[in-house]
Design brief:
Pathway: Carbohydrate acid metabolism; 2-dehydro-3-deoxy-D-gluconate degradation; D-glyceraldehyde 3-phosphate and pyruvate from 2-dehydro-3-deoxy-D-gluconate: step 2/2. It catalyses: 2-dehydro-3-deoxy-6-phospho-D-gluconate = D-glyceraldehyde 3-phosphate + pyruvate. Keywords: Carbohydrate metabolism, Lyase, Schiff base. It comes from Candidatus Pullichristensenella excrementigallinarum. The protein is an alpha/beta fold. It is built from 10 helices and 8 strands. It has a 4-stranded parallel β-sheet, with helices on both faces. Helix 3 links the parallel strand 2 and strand 3. The radius of gyration is 16 Å and the shape is globular. The two termini are 27 Å apart. The chain binds 3-phosphoglyceric acid (3PG).
Length: 219
Amino acid sequence: MENIQSRISQIGVVPVIKLNHPERDAANLARALCAGGVPVAEVTFRAAGADIAIRLMREACPDMIVGAGTVLTKEHVDRAQAAGAQFIVTPGLDTELVAYCQEKGLPIFPGCTTPTDYHAALKYGLEILKFFPAEQSGGLAKIKSMAAPFPMFKVMPTGGISLKNLKEYLSCPVIAACGGSYMVTADLIDNQKWEEITDLCKKSVEIVREARSGREKKL
Ligand code: 3PG
């Protein structure tokens, strides 16, 4: 069985979701993402009912990979895991939380953007780092510069990714997947525009395919 990290890399994009009405929207959203070929979600703890949303999304689409984002405390980790979260994302590198997740066998992708962060991540044997906030921290140019001394990491840039720059990011072999909210904006979710979400996912999947086939041709 493939691990979570390789399944996320294969999909190539990770919708970053904030759900204000999980009971109303979580199941429909999960189905919309899966119908668009993006069976993965990072559900952020910026909204109070994140754990409820995680549980409902997993129930609606059991084959989907659902993780928790904006995880700031051990209590968040516990709530996420109890709800069925399969991975944890933190905005920065909190080594205590990394160790806590590793003890529990939960994959964690901490936010890292500096050489100091990467050094610390290396000590914990991490393989995929969230590069956050991506565009604001130097974007692809910085990701490539960081890969020179730290070729062991793959990164998941998040922050400022859209259909416009997705292909450029994914064409770089250092990128495991791109995170973003562009296909699950507050407007799309609050107005229950499920077909539009599915459509944005399909467009993203097409870009993943194009970027990766370009990558293979260059090798
Ligand atoms: C995150 O929490 O990872 C980011 O806020 C998502 O960034 P985006 O809204 O620019 O995609």
